[in-house]
Amino acid sequence: MRAAGGSAPLYILSFRHRDELTATAERAGWQPIAARRADNAESRFISSGSAVCVVDARGALAEGQDAVRSLADPVEANAAALLVLLSRTDEDALEDLFARGATHFLVSPFSEQQFLQAVQFAQRHAERVGGGRRGRRRDAVSADGASWRWQPGSSTVELSPALARRAGLGEEQGQRISLMELFRKLDADGRRAARGAVDRLLATGQSTAFAHSDLAAESAGGGTRLAHHMRVDDAGVVGRTEAILAPEGAAAASGRDPLTGLRSAREARSWIERQLASGAEGPQPSLILLLLSVSRFDAINAAFGRAIGDDVLQAAARRIERSVDPDGRTRLVARIAGAEFAVLLGAPAGLAEGRFLAGQLVEATARPFMSGDHVVTLGSRIGVVAAEPGDDAASLLRRGSAALAEAKAAEAAPIRVLDSDAANDSARGDRLEIDLRRALDQDEIEILFQPQIAIATGRVVGAEALARWRHPQFGELGAVTLFSVAERSDYLVQLSDHVQRKAIASAAAWPDALSALRLAVNITAADIVRPNFADQFVRLVTETGFPAERLTVEVTEGGLIEDLGAAGNLLAGLRQHGFRVAIDDFGTGYSSLAYLKALPLDYLKIDKKLVEDISGSPRDRIVVRSVIDMARSLGLGVVAEGVETEEQLALLAREGCNLYQGFLCSPPVDVESLAMLARP
């Protein structure tokens, strides 16, 4: 079974079975973004662009319930679906999970086919919700096969017989009419929406839609609107038309949320599409979105009951409305999902105005609320974004959700303004997380070696193994970026194992010219806390045949902070097998002196920031001198990182440094180049 619409993203949070679900989704053509921890789940789901969020609570019900609660609002706000996987023994929790926001469920044991079918059902649900059909009446008027076809560049459109009849053009074999004639049959908002939808379709190739008033029905006293669902095929642009009756009731007819009386999420999306289609003249964006989440609302419901919670939410909606003063044309306030509200500012508003208004809203929602005899205090977090070229309602709301998630994650500032640079960085990070699994599976991570030189003799005596990823889109990515992506995507252990194994195996095959060189490999903070890591590492080295006495294990200083005792035990175990141990990036952490005192070490590597400063003021040189003197008094060798100038090298030599590495000698190189550098 292939993914609906091709290689669509699928967000998976599985506490016990992440890899199995990921492999199943990949085989079916999905593009999974998978995690086994709930950290930043809201932000990661939003940035994934997925229309389906899978929470696998099998064997982890409590964690699954918490995850569903945190993901429910962003799932609803982005017109997505939330599929929960449950153990058979946890079926009693279904009612609670639906109350928290789940839309679909699947109970184990289930087959791979059943899982994929459940995902497809959830995807179809999301498409229907996102297409604006959730609020449609069951007796909505059918368009009886009404459709149209247009070849880009042509000045005419071909209408089906059903659509030709509806447009009053006869009912034989359909009609071909000019674009101008067709556009004259649309209201002003409809013309703008149609132009915007066509532009999006031609720019992206992705299916889209627009809606407009049915002027013929309105003249007859009806309240029907026509929706056109557009796609591209081999014959050009095809539109399928459906007629949608206005929902019954005053609130529904005006697109109002029944609890708060604000505009509904559906109406907000329609308003966004109209604003984006109309565009904006000048440098200002056509639209600013503020996405506001009321904090601690779940706690209010739990403490005082849902009736009090609803009263407070209604009062919060009134405060937001008064602060914004919406007029329905240039400003709009809507309830998007649960305790989330959207504030929309049309042109000529800018990010500065959005930020200022966000500050006012934070103050307004922070003032205590009265409900009967209860005094209730709330707070809020707000994400602010500006519309960009190519945006539609879904993409703008998703970026707003990403900004809101960052605001929620921040300890202090309750407002996060996400500009285009930050959004691009976020999209780049998401792409890298997706591609990393493939890079590991297909052995795309390369190992280069940076020479380490004895200052006294100028000869190459060792090399540090460094990972490089030649990404097809972003070019060469270094170890810092690579390991940062791995940590975010829960592949840090796999990447660390891969790099260590590949580096040691490569060194074991070095030519005779390198047979005396030491090899330095890095271990991470995650390695330190892994059970039996020392035994696994020793077994790896033994299998490759590389001599243990020529291998140095480097641990970054930050990686030792959390558990100094565990780090000490691990390093001591490695030294017993003949390895040497170094602290990498020394001088960047907070417990440097404690490390030197407590850990079994052979080398200290001075961080490149201290090396850069050594040629600065006398005070900087004193700091470096003190570090080197302290290391020498403890019998430790000293390696300086990031040496780039002869002046830095001369000052390090004067202070008693033993070894250095950096671009002054060589950047990281392949084995052949390393052998040339090591020649006498």
Automatic annotation (TrEMBL):
InterPro entries: CheY-like_superfamily (IPR011006), Cyclic-di-GMP_PDE-like (IPR050706), EAL_dom (IPR001633), EAL_sf (IPR035919), GGDEF_dom (IPR000160), Nucleotide_cyclase (IPR029787), Rev_trsase/Diguanyl_cyclase (IPR043128). It comes from the Bacteria. It holds the Pfam family GGDEF. SUPFAM superfamilies: CheY-like, EAL domain-like, Nucleotide cyclase. Residues 429-680 form the EAL domain. GO terms for molecular function: cyclic-guanylate-specific phosphodiesterase activity. Residues 285-420 form the GGDEF domain. This is GGDEF domain-containing protein. It comes from Sphingomonas parva.
